[in-house]
UniProtKB/TrEMBL annotation:
Lineage: Eukaryota, Metazoa, Ecdysozoa, Arthropoda, Hexapoda
Record-given protein name: MADF domain-containing protein
Domain MADF: 51-149
Annotated InterPro entries: MADF-dom (IPR006578)
PANTHER family membership: DPT-YFP REPRESSOR BY OVEREXPRESSION, ISOFORM D-RELATED, MADF DOMAIN-CONTAINING PROTEIN-RELATED
One Pfam family, short name: MADF_DNA_bdg
């Protein structure tokens, strides 16, 4: 029996696999069974992504900008290889570029959720109305902390003003 739904495909061989956001699920004619198996595939994807994030966290050379290893190409390359191996469990044809895209996507999603939370706090919303994230891996990225915070800027205008006041105009 074959059935096609949004981002789901049934496989007659009984194969259960997870490819990025697609699920290959077993169809036995019952939709509830297919949903259960899709949830299991989703949990497998989440577990693999959780391990992916843990590896990323352990490799400070990829995200800790102030770390000496951050500028070491060999260490970064080795770290990307570890992540590529883990990502291949979800996407068998994954490359280093796919790993970089996955990291950027995950971090962008976390930043977007942080922004929504910060905006709801700044808006003066009551504690019941403050935005609560639904992103399951949001807290897994708590190690990033101040890495995404831009440095405070320094103005050189005051230096120019002082220099201008020493210039005499005749």
């Amino acid at each position: 029996m074959f059935a096609h739904e949004h981002k789901r495909a049934c496989v007659p061989s009984g194969e259960l696999a997870c490819h990025s956001s697609q699920f290959l699920i077993v169809c036995d004619g019952g939709r509830s069974r297919a949903r259960f198996i899709a949830k299991m595939a989703s949990r497998k994807c989440n577990a693999t992504l959780e391990k992916f994030i843990e590896i990323y966290k352990s490799e400070g050379c990829l995200w800790r900008v102030k770390c000496k290893e951050y500028h070491d190409r060999d260490k970064r390359s080795t770290a990307y290889e570890k992540l590529k191996t883990k990502l291949k469990e979800l996407e068998p044809t994954a490359t280093k570029d796919d790993v970089i895209k996955k990291i950027n996507t995950l971090r962008s999603n976390v930043r977007r959720e942080e922004k929504k939370y910060d905006e709801s706090v700044k808006s003066g919303a009551s504690s019941n109305d403050i935005y609560k994230t639904t992103l399951w891996y949001f807290e897994l990225f708590d190690f990033i902390g101040a890495q995404d915070v831009p440095r405070s800027s320094r103005s050189n205008i005051s230096e120019i003003d002082e220099n201008d006041s020493n210039i005499s105009i005749n």
